[in-house]
TrEMBL record:
Entries under SUPFAM superfamilies matching the protein: Acyl-CoA N-acyltransferases (Nat)
Start and end residues of each N-acetyltransferase domain: 14-158
Protein origin, superkingdom: Bacteria
Official protein name in the record: Amino acid acetyltransferase
Record Pfam families: Acetyltransf_3 (PF13302)
Xref: Gene3D superfamilies: 3.40.630.30
Length: 202
């Protein structure tokens, strides 16, 4: 038994559910919202590749290195799960420290700027620091993905450095990776900042 077990996390705008094969069609529809897989600096699965990506993430969950989630909107009429808008994960899990990375995250284009991303991050960070007892949470992104870098910095994460020629992308190019982190003692200030941002999206 490990602390990193599948769990459902519910926020103000989104619900993070354990990833399942049944989510396939909803995830395809979410990826088609903005044709996100065509953005060269991201790793959003294409509709044809969604089933394989679900299999990959669930296999990594079995190995203990990832805890994948499907992101849903909260239905304003019922307060329950609404439509699927994307995916996120705990990855590179170090259960012994414990320490974790939040990554492989994407949301449908139509919900960008609506509070879904900070809500999702608040849920993941709160669970990591306040339930799992993590000493640090890490974020990594492509050096050229300026939108992602700015979004991570807005969370309150600090840049640790750049890993040069770190990882080969799906098109075969070797990318530089920017690494950010939030430490345990920084969490209360980060939490306050996220809650303030979310108050604007009521």
């Amino acid at each position: 038994m490990t602390l990193f077990e599948p769990i459902t996390l519910t926020g103000r705008h989104v619900i993070l559910e354990p990833l399942k094969h049944d989510h396939h069609d909803g995830l395809v529809a979410a990826a088609q919202d903005g044709e996100l897989w065509k953005l060269w600096y991201t790793s959003v699965p294409s509709p044809d590749g969604m089933a394989a990506e679900i299999d990959r993430r669930l296999a990594m969950q079995e190995q203990g290195s990832m805890l994948p989630f499907t992101t849903r909107l909260i239905d304003p009429a019922t307060g329950g799960p609404g439509r699927i808008i994307g995916m996120t994960t705990y990855c590179n899990i170090d259960a012994g420290t414990p320490r974790v990375e939040v990554g492989y995250t994407w949301n449908a284009a139509s919900v960008h700027g609506t509070g879904t991303n900070p809500d999702s991050k608040l849920l993941l960070l709160r669970h990591a620091f306040e339930t799992l007892g993590c000493v640090a949470v890490e974020f990594c992104t492509h050096w050229l993905n300026h939108q992602s870098r700015e979004a991570i910095a807005r969370l309150g994460a600090k840049q640790d450095g750049v890993l040069r020629s770190h990882r080969r992308t799906s098109d075969g190019v070797v990318r530089d990776t920017v690494v950010f982190s939030i430490l345990e003692h920084e969490w209360p200030m980060v939490r306050n900042g996220l809650e303030h941002r979310l108050a604007k999206h009521r």
